[in-house]
Specification:
The protein is of the alpha+beta class. Helix content is 22%, strand content 42%. It is built from three helices and six strands.
């Protein structure tokens, strides 16, 4: 499976405008141009948008490399919002790395940057399980 091709055709990624910059089992980097539609009442990017970007980076550390008989389900997410992100400061960049990948549980970390600032950091936990027949 080509991670870049799958990423590009995923509806949520296209809708938000997320771009895959680099992907491997050790590191994933995504980019997201900030649009006015992403802003909340105080004029900064809404936390759910930041969380979605961080989550997507963590997912692409694991999902493209799963064996055909395995699937994954998110079981936990903890985000720390460290600074506001704005339209004026350019695109957001998410960098995800694995903290631990076992046979049944994986934990990944995603950091979000805008310009030279870290704006958020998240930890994501996934259950790695047998794929159920459809």
């Amino acid at each position: 499976m080509d991670p870049a091709a799958v990423f590009a055709r995923t509806p949520c990624n296209r809708f938000l405008g997320i771009e895959l910059v680099d992907a491997s089992r050790e590191r994933v980097e995504l980019s997201l141009p900030v649009r006015d539609e992403f802003l909340q009442e105080e004029g900064v990017v809404q936390g759910g948008i930041l969380t979605a970007l961080a989550d997507m980076a963590a997912v692409y550390l694991l999902w493209p490399y799963l064996p055909a008989d395995r699937a994954m389900t998110g079981t936990g997410c903890a985000m720390q919002f460290l600074a506001g992100a704005s339209v004026a400061d350019g695109p957001l960049r998410a960098v995800a790395t694995p903290l631990r990948v076992g046979s049944t549980v994986a934990v990944c970390e995603s950091e979000l940057f805008q310009g030279g600032r870290r704006v958020a950091k998240g930890t994501f936990t996934f259950l790695l399980r047998e794929r159920r027949p459809r």
